Amino acid sequence: MPERTVFQSMSQKHVISLGPHASAWEAACVMTRANCGSVLIVDTPGTLLGIVTERDLMTRVLAKALIPEKTQVSEVMTRNPYCVAPEMQVSDAVLIMIERGFRHLPIMGAGSKILGVFSVRDALPREIGNAVSLAEFHEQVNDALG
């Protein structure tokens, strides 16, 4: 069975986004309504500026006792997030997530068109297994090469 691409595996095919002046509270509400773990931060022409995730809200807003209604997403977002192409295989995307500590990867198409977000939750167990095996192999090679 051929492996799926990140675009094929996405559970949500529409882009969840906010402008940079939206509040962290608005981001949490949008994510809750859409039942997703991230929101893309875009400027008016639709250029990707950053991403805000559940973890960002917890560690950069709540844990620092910031007021969600008064904290702009631009203050707590991950700027210039690592993006992947829609044709990337899921196991390759999961490998990037494992190695870099991500849970969400924006998907960018031709002409920097934002297509959505791939979440680790979109991966199947066998795709995750393939990525874990590859990550372990990379670690062994790095250890051997010193």
Task: Explain what the structure shows.
There is one protein chain. This protein is an alpha+beta fold. It has a single domain, classed as CBS-domain (Roll). Helices cover 41% and strands 18% of the residues. It has helices spanning 6-9, 24-34, 54-62, 73-76, 90-100, 125-145; strands at 17-18, 38-42, 48-53, 78-79, 104-108, 114-119. The strands form 2 sheets. The chain has a 4-stranded mixed β-sheet with strand order 1-2-3-4. Helix 5 packs across helix 6. The N and C termini lie far apart (36 Å). The mean pLDDT is 90.
Briefly say what this structure is.
The chain is an alpha+beta fold. The chain has helices at residues 6-9, 24-34, 54-62, 73-76, 90-100, 125-145; strands at residues 17-18, 38-42, 48-53, 78-79, 104-108, 114-119.
Write the layout of secondary structure elements.
Layout: H1 6-9, E1 17-18, H2 24-34, E2 38-42, E3 48-53, H3 54-62, H4 73-76, E4 78-79, H5 90-100, E5 104-108, E6 114-119, H6 125-145
Parallel strand pairs: 1-2
Antiparallel strand pairs: 2-3, 3-4, 5-6
